[in-house]
Write a sequence for this structure.
């Protein structure tokens, strides 16, 4: 389970047995949601935040923080997904402590 980012206490990560569509998970305490990235002609055209089966979803301010982070880092998250799952490279963990 590679962790890729921490943003204001939210851990963003991939499960090691992921599948398409490209997505990442955001976890804060017992709450977890996932963000799916839809790509057309090499461009991210949409990001959908979805519930994770069996988990309580992010809500309120933490959901807003997750959305905000995705707005600024979607391209980097997708690049890390490709590096990890396609090229089998290690991905670096980064901590972002400022509001976006």
């Amino acid at each position: 389970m590679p962790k890729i980012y921490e943003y204001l206490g939210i851990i963003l990560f991939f499960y090691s047995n992921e599948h398409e569509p490209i997505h990442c998970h955001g976890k804060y305490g017992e709450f977890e949601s996932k963000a799916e990235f839809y790509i057309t002609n090499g461009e991210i055209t949409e990001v959908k935040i979805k519930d994770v089966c069996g988990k309580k979803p992010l809500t309120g301010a933490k959901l807003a923080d997750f959305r905000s982070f995705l707005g600024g880092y979607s391209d980097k998250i997708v690049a890390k997904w490709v590096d990890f799952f396609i090229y089998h490279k290690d991905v670096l963990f980064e901590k972002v402590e400022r509001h976006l």
